[in-house]
Amino acid sequence: MSTMLRINRDKCGYCGTCVAVCPEDALELIDAYLSLERECIACGICARACPLGALEVVHEE
Amino acid sequence: MKNNYDILVIGGGPAGALAAKTAADAGNSVCLIEKRPAIGTPVRCAEGIGKELLKEFIKPDPRWIAADIERARIISPNGTAISLEQDKAGNEVGYVLDRKIFDRELVWQAAEAGADVIVKTRATAPIMENGAVRGAKVLSVGTPADIRAEVVIAADGTEAQFARRAGLDTVVPLREMMSCAQYLMTDIDIDAGSTDFYLGNEIAPEGYLWVFPKGDRTANVGIGISGRKSRDGSRAKDYLDRFVAKNFPNGKTIEAIAGGVPVCRPLACTVADGLMVAGDAARVVDPITGGGIGNAMLTGRLAAQVASECIAAGNCSKEALMPYDAGWRASKMGTILERNYKVKEYFVTLDDAKLNTLAESIAQSSLKEFSVLALIKELITRNPKMLLELKALRDTLS
């Protein structure tokens, strides 16, 4: 089973809140979109902090 | 693109703009880069600032003042309102700005002073040599480039990735990240002269909801809640939508934004070899109000002043840059940040019943001064029986 972070770009307000709480510096706010640029440990902290619910840690078989 | 400057400023908000202007005025070659394609947008702010604080940096101009505020109301969970009136208090209240215009004005002033300004240009990493920052690797409209500088002033806001990649710990703990959402609403019934703050664990857990006027029937209606209280179904946006549905059901939202406000303590150290950190990136946001514009301008300006001296003296080591860190910590702002951090840590422990009791105790008071300090003093005076519980609050004053 693998775990990954899913970014819902339609919900994302590209505000950068997630970037500031990410313990791995994995997220990058590039102009008007959010990107997973480096390795994510799927801790879910960003998904908690998101004001809009645009981030989700998903588990895939 | 020129690739060598005395000072490189990362970020075109109030901290970066004041840093660039101050540095250019002092005769340095300065470059300010902004990753967005436009200065001032998108707004990430409730746009309130105290008048006296603002005037320390710029003459108020109607072009970027959306509202002149005469009173503030703090509304407790049961609806008890504490009203702070400018007439009764000895000092002025504040303005609600139009940040899109305000930020542009500040950057214009920096450009006029001689600073280069480059938009849609993102710092991807510091240029490090022997442990010291010597500039930044950037992507400018997709093209990689190196910009070297004697000193880099990182004013890259909440994200604060530049200082982090230079080795400073800028990560905000979840519980100290205010998760925020805001609507610019129009056609709503508001008191155009009052900034309203709504408290309560049902309304805004460990934070507050604000209505900041921007005209007769227009306001920033926003909310910040602690990151640890944020989860599916109870996110900042959910709380805000519930408040709006109840209070402004017929209002029109003409802008919807989100944002994160760090209410942790400032960075342990805001300088490193060749690097200074200012504004939200330095975590110098007031932990009680969430206000950061004035502190950003103060730290941006001070950073540039110290950087100018260090460049003139030919030494931009961490040690040489330390007067900046020591300077803002010793300032009135530094004192208020530390005190308000402790006050915040006390207030987040209060349940709604306690918030109501405290609000009722001072609802009839006429405060002589318009400040967090005056409010705390009044709370302590009016609640002698709660001495033990208020001890934590009283201790913040010593």
Automatic annotation (TrEMBL), chain A:
Residues 3-32, 33-60 form the 4Fe-4S ferredoxin-type domain. Pfam families: Fer4. Keywords: 4Fe-4S, Electron transport, Iron, Iron-sulfur, Metal-binding, Repeat, Transport. GO terms for molecular function: 4 iron, 4 sulfur cluster binding; metal ion binding; oxidoreductase activity. PROSITE patterns: 4FE4S_FER_1 (PS00198), 4FE4S_FER_2 (PS51379). The keyword Transcription regulation does not apply. InterPro entries: 4Fe4S_Fe-S-bd, 4Fe4S_Fe_S_CS, Fe-S_Ferredoxin. Coiled coil: none annotated. PANTHER family: ADENYLYLSULFATE REDUCTASE, BETA SUBUNIT, L-ASPARTATE SEMIALDEHYDE SULFURTRANSFERASE IRON-SULFUR SUBUNIT. This is 4Fe-4S dicluster domain-containing protein.
From TrEMBL, chain B:
GO terms for biological process: glycerophospholipid biosynthetic process; membrane lipid biosynthetic process. This is Digeranylgeranylglycerophospholipid reductase. Pathway: Membrane lipid metabolism; glycerophospholipid metabolism. Signal peptide: none annotated. The keyword Lipid metabolism applies. Its EC number is 1.3.7.11. Residues 177-261 form the Digeranylgeranylglycerophospholipid reductase catalytic domain. A 2,3-bis-O-(geranylgeranyl)-sn-glycerol 1-phospholipid binds at residue 372. One of its GO terms (molecular function) is oxidoreductase activity, acting on the CH-CH group of donors, iron-sulfur protein as acceptor. Reduction reaction proceeds via syn addition of hydrogen for double bonds. The keyword Lipid metabolism applies. Is involved in the reduction of 2,3-digeranylgeranylglycerophospholipids (unsaturated archaeols) into 2,3-diphytanylglycerophospholipids (saturated archaeols) in the biosynthesis of archaeal membrane lipids. Catalyzes the formation of archaetidic acid (2,3-di-O-phytanyl-sn-glyceryl phosphate) from 2,3-di-O-geranylgeranylglyceryl phosphate (DGGGP) via the hydrogenation of each double bond of the isoprenoid chains. FAD binds at residues 15, 34, 45-46, 48, 99, 123, 280, 292-293. GO terms for cellular component: membrane. It is an enzyme of class 1 (oxidoreductase). Gene3D superfamilies: D-Amino Acid Oxidase, subunit A, domain 2 (3.30.9.10), FAD/NAD(P)-binding domain (3.50.50.60). Its cofactor is FAD. The lineage of its organism: Archaea, Methanobacteriati, Methanobacteriota, Stenosarchaea group, Methanomicrobia. PANTHER family: DIGERANYLGERANYLGLYCEROPHOSPHOLIPID REDUCTASE, GERANYLGERANYL DIPHOSPHATE REDUCTASE. Belongs to the geranylgeranyl reductase family. DGGGPL reductase subfamily. It comes from Methanoculleus sediminis. Keywords: FAD, Flavoprotein, Lipid biosynthesis, Lipid metabolism, Oxidoreductase, Phospholipid biosynthesis, Phospholipid metabolism. Binds 1 FAD per subunit. Coiled coil: none annotated. It catalyses: archaetidylserine + 8 AH2 = 2,3-bis-O-phytanyl-sn-glycero-3-phospho-L-serine + 8 A; a 2,3-bis-O-phytanyl-sn-glycerol 1-phospholipid + 8 oxidized 2[4Fe-4S]-[ferredoxin] = a 2,3-bis-O-(geranylgeranyl)-sn-glycerol 1-phospholipid + 8 reduced 2[4Fe-4S]-[ferredoxin] + 16 H(+); 2,3-bis-O-(phytanyl)-sn-glycerol 1-phosphate + 8 oxidized 2[4Fe-4S]-[ferredoxin] = 2,3-bis-O-(geranylgeranyl)-sn-glycerol 1-phosphate + 8 reduced 2[4Fe-4S]-[ferredoxin] + 16 H(+); CDP-2,3-bis-O-(geranylgeranyl)-sn-glycerol + 8 AH2 = CDP-2,3-bis-O-(phytanyl)-sn-glycerol + 8 A.
